[in-house]
Amino acid sequence: MSETNGSQSTREAIVDAADGLFYARGIGQVGMDAVRDAAGVSLRALYKEFASKDELIVAVLGKRHSMWTSGVTAKVDSIAEPRAKLLAVYDYLADWFGDADFRGCGFINAFGELGAANHRVADTVREHKADFQKYVDSLVKAAGGPASLGPQLAILAEGAQTTAAIAGTTDAARHARAAAESLIAAAGI
């Protein structure tokens, strides 16, 4: 059994494999043997990198945080006007919801499965959500909006993620964007 996947490190291969499996099937439905097989590593190599499934889950959430942050930031940074940057968040969501493998927010999914029973997962999810909130707050500030607008816009994005996962359509992004436009206009931006 190969201990690496091409130029990827063993650790990266394990995290990538676990991410795909956890996101598609759910964390509780995936055992370490399935991760080992998907990563193309030995069980010994897997446990050398991650002493427990909890450690692997936190690493997967770290990867998801990086993916989310870079995706949203790239979409927002492609826009020059501060008001339009606020709406670009919802454009990012529309693109993401259209992905064939979209299964909702990996953080919300992980919290739903494990949050009440696993403080490490709960803390990691809370940190991710707080980071997004701070990001939206910074966009609102740059646009000259009131501090109260940031949480309102963030909750629209969070609700859209859950709704899109359940409904299986991209409509939630469009509806959240329209609601955000109303809130932004009401704030005088």
Automatic annotation (TrEMBL):
<keyword id="KW-0238">DNA-binding</keyword>
<dbReference type="InterPro" id="IPR009057">
    <property type="entry name" value="Homeodomain-like_sf"/>
</dbReference>
<dbReference type="InterPro" id="IPR001647">
    <property type="entry name" value="HTH_TetR"/>
</dbReference>
<dbReference type="InterPro" id="IPR050109">
    <property type="entry name" value="HTH-type_TetR-like_transc_reg"/>
</dbReference>
<dbReference type="InterPro" id="IPR036271">
    <property type="entry name" value="Tet_transcr_reg_TetR-rel_C_sf"/>
</dbReference>
<feature type="domain" description="HTH tetR-type">
    <location>
        <begin position="8"/>
        <end position="68"/>
    </location>
</feature>
<dbReference type="Pfam" id="PF00440">
    <property type="entry name" value="TetR_N"/>
</dbReference>
<protein>
    <submittedName>
        <fullName>TetR/AcrR family transcriptional regulator</fullName>
    </submittedName>
</protein>
<feature type="DNA-binding region" description="H-T-H motif">
    <location>
        <begin position="31"/>
        <end position="50"/>
    </location>
</feature>
